[in-house]
Batch of 4 targets.
Target 1
Amino acid sequence: MSILDNWQQWKDFLGEKVITAQKTGMEKEKMSEVAFQIGDYLAKNVDPKNEQERVLADLWKAADENEQHVLANLMIRLAGGSVSH
């Protein structure tokens, strides 16, 4: 089973990565940019595995670049981080 198959596992995985990034001193702006790049890659290359991922993919595709950055930051917050702009 892939990490993408279960929404809670995906959020937990992201949360662990956000915590690791924060502990290693990654700046909020860099974390935000990495989240944007990951979101863009997933939306373009990975078929959503559950309803939540389908909604995120649809929102990503409907959003302009600024809104995609907002979505990326919201995913960081949802996963347990605290990036804000």
Note: The chain has a mean pLDDT of 86.
Target 2
Amino acid sequence: MRILITNDDGINAPGLEALAEIAAEIAGPDGEVWTVAPAFEQSGVGHCISYAHPTLIAELAPRRWAAEGSPADCVLAAIGDIMADAPPDLILSGVNRGNNAGENVMYSGTIGAAMEGALQGIPSIALSQYLGAATARLTDPFDCARVHGARVVRALLDRGTWAAKDDFALFYNVNFPPVGGGGMRGIRVAPQGRRSGVRFGVHPHVAPNGRRFLWVGGGPQTAPATPGSDVEALMAGYTTITPMRPDLTCRAATEALAGDLDEG
């Protein structure tokens, strides 16, 4: 199996090192693991692509490339150029430093890479490590992802539903709970939730030279969340799996509005 790994924390991020270990276990001794990751951190860029300017790519080592672009750019670079002669069989994105559950999904470059892979017709999985008080005490905050990552990916490859190449894309969002590997309670398939009252916002600051800057920040990650959701299950110590599609249609509102506004 040929596996492409990428992330949004950058080519030197420790989570990408953890993902390389997971991918190597999945690929096996006869497989290949290719890395195409952003040269610099790209957290929060979502599914952004560098449509208006070119992307510089550089080979750092055999099967290891850096791209001055977004995670989705990295996937496009791999499929369209670096691995064009033999595209990957699987794309893994992560392991993100922090959770990509609830409202975080909409901003995540980790999710954006998996989404682009799915749009290209390749099975894709995003993996993220929820951080908290328990992981802060660990030598390796990615311990839960390292211990359970390969097993979760194998389970999805064996029993997950994968869209046909010409169908609307389907990919999976995996989040590991904020505990060590021995503290995980199990796996839950759960829908994306929402933390109550949590929104991104800006924090203004004035630099010593008088210039005004805005820092973007999120809300508390332990806020109460939608019952039965990914966030609630993660806080209870479960690894969550959420099937996703890049289709933002609200079916209920579409049907209701069509009944009122459709003409002809």
Note: The chain has one domain: 2-195+224-261.
Target 3
Amino acid sequence: MKRCAKLLASAALLLLAGSTGFAADIIGEPVGDYCRTVGTSNLVLNDNIVDLKAQVVKLMDESVAVANSSEWINSSRPAFVWASEAKVACGMAYGYLKTNYKDEDTLNKCECFHDRMVEYMH
């Protein structure tokens, strides 16, 4: 019984000691501004669904091309990471747009992540 209590106390101590880091948990800490623009993206401001779908597909296609390119997969620059994020965000935004729903969060992420990808490519 004493051994169980010691193990439990040790585990609790380790948990408390490890909780001071912010490796995976960023709640409560300031988040870096990944996009230079504050507020809504240009995609969100577009009210023409047909045009918006075309823009999102263009960004998604460019992101997929970079994510599949061995040049960027093997690069030390993070363009591949942002391309992977952009293709997912743009794919989600396009999925919403197919039902004529304009999801602002995914549209903002799509444009933001694509912009970051392009930034690291140059």
Note: The radius of gyration is 21 Å.
Target 4
Amino acid sequence: MLLVPLWAWLAVLAVILVMLAIDLFAHRRAHVIGVREAAAWSVVWVACGVGFGVLIWSLYGAELGQQYFAGYLIEKSLAVDNVFVWAIIFSYFAVPREYQHRVLFLGVLGALVFRGIFIAAGSVIIASFSAILYLFAAFLIYTGYRMIRTRDEHLDPAKSRALALFRRMVPMTDAYHGQRLLIRRGGILLATPLLAVLVLVEVTDIVFAVDSIPAIFAVTDEPFLVFTANAFAILGLRAMYFLLADLMHRFIYLKLGLALVLIWVGIKMALKVDLFYIPTTISLAVIVTILAVSIGASLRATRGQARQAITEPENPPFRIATPAEIAALQPTWRPRRAGRRSEPAPADHTTTPPPPRPGEDR
């Protein structure tokens, strides 16, 4: 068991917060992130993740260092599939490219919080009831098998239950208002489509975490390594999205490779409970080989194909607010004065209930 002092946990959290602050400052103004900028940030985030792994290796030895890198590779590779799902969501809802970074930044921030909770809960459950590893192993093997069967299927945002529930319960405007998540119009606080997209991104990440967290526990039992491998892999997701989103049509065998990785770590987890422990060196080599072969085969089979953005629908569900509509917005968080009636709002389609007819009960 790796005994990590409290100051080490606090130091890692401080580093993560500083990195997030730097990223937020660098992208404080909405702009379209190009391939060159995304590639530069991807190098920065990967260097941070690899550098932390080297630090773990030098401080705690090769075994724990390899466990960290195995977890980091699993999370990073599964994140690529997550990136492609984000591309489908953004394209379906025609989210302007200059607003996508804000959604992904908040989505990654939420992902860190939720995964921290999942990791803490998983550590407690495994420590109290080690036989749960058999259930995790069976789940990973089944998930890998199901991923192979459905590797040609893609998310359909129009059928998302999370989005339908959000639109039914939260009053929402039908237009993007810059990077705003909430607006106030006619004295009523309304969600913008950008908030709905953020909710859908967060829900999909939680679904992916259900696969990735047990997969990392298959290669290491150390909560500190599980969390840091997750965190450093997730921090680079935004840059990875802008780098790879237009290339998803080229990774035709990646989902098959990810499925084989899940099946492999599921088998490793099942064996290590009471039967046989597969050395981390072998496990890491198998993961690297599967990913390298699937990525290499994909790029070879699709060589010569250029970057290609996902086609947006002809009639997207949301539109962009006009300058007049944005100028007419009321301050979002300023409370209304008592007895002051709000000014009439400009015409706009919302999901708010219609006013009652004359004679009906209010």
Note: The chain has twelve helices and four strands.
